[in-house]
Amino acid sequence: MSYRFTQTDLDYLRSDVGKHALAQFTGLAIDDRSMLADLTKVRKHTADHGTAVVETIRLRRRAIAKLGARSATWLLTDEALQQASPEPVAAHRARRLTGLAIHDVTCSIGADLVHLSRTASVAIGSDLHPIRAQMAAFNMATTGERAEIVVADALVPVSRGLLPYADPARRDGAGRRILSADTVPRVADLDEVWAHRPPVLRVPPGIDYEALARPGEVEIVSLDGSAREAVLWPQELARVARRATVLLSGGEGYELTSDDSDDIPVAPVGAWIVDPDAAVVRSHLVRHFAARHGLWQLDPHLAYLTGNLPPRVGRAFKVLDSAPYSERTVGEWLQKDGAGTVEIKVRGVDIEPDALRVRLRKYLTGPKSVDRTIVLARVGRNSMAYLTLAALAP
């Protein structure tokens, strides 16, 4: 159970004495081995506030990696940090709202509001929890951004003429992740309350957006290959029906939309098998990705693509051999190639990759530097196996 900050904690952490304590002890290791000793040391100097100080130092360290250096002096909660968008993702979303007047109705600790305040003509925030709302105000001040922040329920409108933006909670009262539209508050409830101007909604990337049948645009956003969020854009901001936005920390990303061509054939495997980015798969734009890069499908129901040249984005696997799947055949491939490690990728075949990897260990006789990837896929009525060499696209 994560630590729950009290009003007394917050008052202390915002005071000069609290800020000094945070600076004084920020160099402590505060890891599993040193936690007890470090906490005892901090408590000697901060009395009843030791746990709040230690927890804040730990949260700030995690926040820097996710939210950027600006969060090094923020006040946070564990739940808010877990839900907050990584900095590149939040910045991308805010750019789409440039020039608009925005009300972040679930502003939490202000992670999204900081970006919105930089791009929107007007930005205000509200949160149901007074502690989070006060943290948001403190964090905004540390970054030099300005936005009015009030305590309010997202289901009780307190603004007029502003476009609402909501990021409903993805965890229930027991801390379990929510992958459906039953977020807190629920998507349907937010749409009903704000029917006069439907909100922009940030929801889990695995949500069944087709079942929602919500008018507007669905944008699936990934960062470095991992799907991070789905953004449900209302009709007033929709440009297409579906969009995949692929963001890369170390380079230029790309976008695909449902308006792009998806005219591709289904044909046997080529020289390469290509696994599209998670955002492309979740937005059902696999065929559109293939058309852009001169690829084709192994099977019309399969997300794996194939071609004779790999694209310059995504993961590609050079095909070394192929055959109808049998465990013995796969093992003999690995043994013959002198493989020392193996990655197993499965689509459409009822095989548990981890269990298969254990059974294949006896065939891994080579050095660990010799790595192979086994791709298992349902092609037509057949379970096919492909021996491949994973490679970064050129």
UniProtKB/TrEMBL annotation:
Segments forming domain THUMP-like: 314-383
Gene Ontology terms for molecular function: methyltransferase activity
Keyword entries, A-Z: Methyltransferase, Transferase
Domain of life of the native organism: Bacteria
Claim: Transferase is one of the keywords in the record: yes
GO biological process: methylation
Coiled coil residues, start to end: none
UniProt-listed Pfam families: Thump_like
Name of the protein described by the UniProt record: Class I SAM-dependent methyltransferase
Lineage: Bacteria, Bacillati, Actinomycetota, Actinomycetes, Nakamurellales
